[in-house]
Amino acid sequence: MSTPVRPAPIRPALIRSSIAAAGLGLLHLAPAVVRLPPLRRTLARRTAGYGTDPHHLALTFDDGPDPRSTPYVLDALDDLGARATFFLLGAMLERAPALGRELVLRGHEVAVHGWHHRQQWYPAPARDLRELRRAAEAVTDLCGA
Q1: Alpha-carbon gap, residue 117 to 9, rounded angstroms
Q2: Could you report the per-residue pLDDT of 59-111, keeping only the tens digit for each?
Q3: What CATH number is given for 57-143 in this structure?
Q4: Coil, helix or strand for 32?
């Protein structure tokens, strides 16, 4: 008759590191709780999207400038007499610098959205900072902003 094989006990260090990894994952996702309206109103009252002027609307556009769609957006905003903030990707701006300058010339605000639009599931602070700096330089140099 054979002796039953018992699994090796789980080591305390493995348990601690697993708990730490889960905690870091939750910490990384913590800012997402403000997407839930009740929590947003409670935890982020000043940034919950409620202004004092009922006639003010903030429009933002991400991931451009895209030569296929941005000109239409600009024309629509001009027709409405509205201004917006465009969060630009450095890689897109590098391909359409004249469009980036046109955003500024038409009175819109430009801001940095990164170099590429990658999901940063595994943040790498040095890489992310490098990409943000590169994108900021592109916005400054190519848009004149």
Answers
A1: 43
A2: 899 999 999 999 999 999 999 999 999 999 999 999 999 999 999 999 999 99
A3: 3.20.20.370
A4: helix
